[in-house]
Design a protein that fits this description.
DNA-binding transcription factor activity (chains A, B, C, D), Tetracycline Repressor, domain 2, mainly alpha, 74% helix, transcription cis-regulatory region binding (chains A, B, C, D), homotetramer, DNA-binding, 9 helices
DNA sequence: TATGAATGAGTTTTCATTCAT
DNA sequence: CATGAATGAAAACTCATTCAT
């Protein structure tokens, strides 16, 4: 048989699909366009996916996981403090071309999920896991005195979560050269989480 | 007279289209489905709109404007203070069935705009207008001592803007009975805008 | 609206489909070929049928009912006797071009039903009704002394039923000019049903 | 040696194809499904057959010959009489699972032949041979006084031939436990072939 | 021989749009 | 104005066949 890595080929397809979704929109993701983007025949697609919907889902997962991975890699494992947040959050925002593409796909996923129950369920579960993780981290920081206890860990999580989603949506609509600056206030907000100096 | 009828008919179509978008997704908005939703023949649509894209845009505008209108109506014209924010923000969030539908459409619009330049431009201009308006209002409140000056009016606007967008996206994914509670932290955040009592 | 009789249009489609099935086989019944046969565009088909399978079923029913109708019309209502059988059976056999087409479709249906439960069920029910009807008729003739009681009405029905099916299959494989002759023995067989003259 | 392997492999393919045709229908016989049924890769098929049509024909022949073989084996070579018919006819009907499968394939073949001239020709020739053989046998029995001369050998052959085809089609549509009983009348019919006792 | 990835023509199906009534 | 039948381009999907490994 010809040597091909099935999983890696699937990922190629997913990445190409994600690229189309990001640049032309979900409705432009046709099997023809995708085959062209991949430089192969349309028949190839059915080797790796049973239907177009499967491809769409794979593209969504591909982009979603890359954003998450990017953030995980930015997490400093040892002795986290307020400063640790900055790189993680930067990693989670669409500040360069690569993450811009991924966020465009993720935003499509959010809309898609609104009317696709399975995706909606998956989305909600993923969010909940993420929130639990983050709440735990913040509570840890609070206990170590790195973060103010004036706001509950849950509320900080909620703020961060919604803010990142809202800002990401906002950023992908802006030219790249305005994004860093637009994201700046977020860092100021983080600063406000420092505990007040004890009198 | 005839003009009124014509416009009101166009709005009916837009509303029906919005309903379909919200409940079934943009890809489920077909001319047949729309005619069925409206209880009329497909031929009618071409009397009021030249193409399907026009209908989509009209649905987007319809929903968008209703959210904005809802917020404007909640604005207390005279002597605004921190408390004035609460009803406005509530009015701007998808907390009931009606606003839920509108937000679902708006979220579709956001995704749509990512790959449709005209809509993107319109979206950005609208946002800018809204931000300018809000920044002005907050600066006024700051001058009157109702809002802390520790954070700039621009930053408060940015926070509010992104937060509402992120939260709205979040809320439409939740059951209605969890929404009020999920939105609660926003009100706490507003409380933090109060100026510190002078020592 | 354009004046069209929906049901009659459906029948046109079914008839055209039946013609294709009879002449080219079920696998040659494509939407393209059918549209061509009908002299219309492929889109028309979806106005009258939701799927190709529906069309296939309609074609089967069309042919099936025409054979049955042909037989019913040949039934002499009043005072039936042995002679009454001849025209009915002739009407039920593929002896001319029209009934040949219908039988070809019916034979396709029989094969189709083997692996399509719904059709199989329908086929069996129809057969049972037909058998019950025929058994009743024969019993009546037996009581009136027109038909021998040496063979039970049920057995005569079974013989007739299987014989007609087998013979029809046989006849459609023959040139038309051989068919009448091939069917002749059936009439002889019917003669044997006459009761023996009482000694 | 190698030739044997080759032929046996071809038969495996034909048998697997026949199984698919019988259980899922001719349209379900795809190269992929066949490879799966065989437990091998699709590439194998092209080693043993040049095209799918060849495989279909082979499957038809496989089933057809097995029915014929089954009947031949049931023929009592020496001193045949009326009783000799019973086991032959039973062997020729789809009364158990094995012959059921073969008859399902044969019925597919009959339909297939309607629109495939080569198969039709083959079918007709085979039938004619069979009829000639049977007519000869019956004439022999008539001469020996085992079978009535009231009906010509040709007519008896025709009756038997059509009856078996019709009944087979009938039986494969019934549950197995009803088949023996449904076939019973055939044996009664054979009894009627006995010559009348001379007065 | 055996494999199964790749091809691409062909099929069903969907759908915005047009237009005769 | 309203209707919905008709159109046909374009979509997703199927599948026999080929061929590099």
């Amino acid at each position: 048989m010809r040597k091909v890595d099935h999983d890696s080929r699937r990922e190629d397809v997913a990445a190409a699909a994600a690229s189309l979704i990001a640049n032309k929109g979900l409705e432009a993701l046709t099997t023809r366009a995708l085959a062209k983007e991949l430089g192969c025949s349309i028949g190839v697609l059915s080797h790796y996916f049973h239907s177009k919907e499967e491809i769409v889902i794979a593209a969504f997962r591909w982009a979603d996981q890359r954003i998450d991975l990017r953030m995980q890699e930015a997490i400093a494992d040892d002795s986290p403090n307020i400063e640790s947040f900055f790189p993680v959050i930067k990693a989670g925002l669409p500040l360069d071309a690569e993450s811009d593409l991924e966020w465009r796909v993720r935003l499509n996923l959010h809309t898609f999920a609104l009317t696709h129950d399975t995706s909606l369920q998956a989305e909600r579960e993923k969010n909940q896991q993420f929130r639990d993780l983050m709440t735990g981290m913040i509570a840890g920081l609070q206990n170590k005195g790195h973060v103010t206890k004036e706001v509950s860990a849950e509320d900080i999580t909620s703020i961060a979560f919604d803010l990142v989603n809202g800002m990401a949506k906002n950023l992908v609509m802006c030219p790249f050269d305005e994004r860093e600056q637009k994201a700046e206030y977020l860092y100021k907000l983080i600063e406000m989480l420092r505990p007040l100096p004890k009198p």
